[in-house]
Amino acid sequence: MLKYTVILIPEEEGGYSVEVPALPGCYTQGETKEEAISMAKEAIELYLESCQAHNELIPQEFGIESLIIAVREPVA
Questions:
Q1: What is the pTM of this model?
Q2: Which range marks the domain in which residue 29 is found?
Q3: Cβ(8)–Cβ(18) below 8 Å
């Protein structure tokens, strides 16, 4: 089973954009977080099927770790 990091980006007008950093050009969106994740899974599967159909190597993701770090706001 392959695993990929996805980045969910909340949009100002609502919903989420999704990016898959290990798969260039693999983007999608969804109205809810759950829908965005479901759409990401589908987009990744289609991306990998396209790689296979074109005899391209399937990109692997190794050692990527994602963190959210809290920092102080600058004082005016």
A1: 0.81
A2: 1-76
A3: yes
